Amino acid sequence: MEFEIESPKNITELCKTIKSYRSKSFRFGAGYTDLLMELKKHTPRNLTVINLAQLKDVSFSSIRSTTKNIQIGAMITASKLVTDTRIEQLFPVLQQAAHNLASTQIRQVATLGGNMCTASPSGDLICAAMALQASCEIMNDDKKIHNLSIQDFFIGVRKTALKKNEFLFAINIPRNKKRTATLHSGFIKIGTRKSMECSVVSLAFHLQIDKTGKIIDAGIAIGASAPTVKFAQSACQFLIGKKINSFSEKEKEEFANKVLSYASPISDIRATAWYRKEVLFNISKGVLE
Fold it and tell me: Chain centroid to CA 262: how far?
């Protein structure tokens, strides 16, 4: 496993480095929790890794509040997401997903951007961000930024819409509709063992409930159930306007079937497609119980 390393110190240097390697083979590295495993299996010839760990840029490595969004820099670690009080209070689903990511040691170095750009169908942080209907802030090597919805960011198994001269700068999560809303928000991860495991099935949910108990907004996403993490739009629409504590058994099953309609799981060494569907149906029902 041999490769060269470039370590730009700021965004300007990073953009210049990307430009200089446009016609060459390069990868980005931050926490290296996924990249090193990949390169152990196969390292392309004449590969350069652009090391992001030395970058000094506040926006790239911080959590900032705006009037409309919470902006999370791509270099934020899973550990920071676990301990940040704003994330815990506003978006429990993201805090729980980060807490479920691998081990304590890996969470110290694994980054939001790395998890997003690996684009695994079982990505824990991806699933939570999808449920929160985040948008992706993308910068190119001319330092120009454009935004892309998270649903459009993922285009296939381990494939994103990023071009070679672009990188994920941050994600923006819209603020909850009402500050007084009660949240029913969480992340459910089913694996074959308790720790250090990719999901067999995962489900992220973020429901906002008004003072009368009515659901005023909903975000539901499923992981490890299709080629990409999926946002269950029709299941979300089914919930809007209904009382959180008044679902009949029939309605719970209808909701679960709507979630299941977005799943197209495969059978692999960890689980069969049949098992994944059964588990997804049951945990979906459980969201309303």
Answer: 17
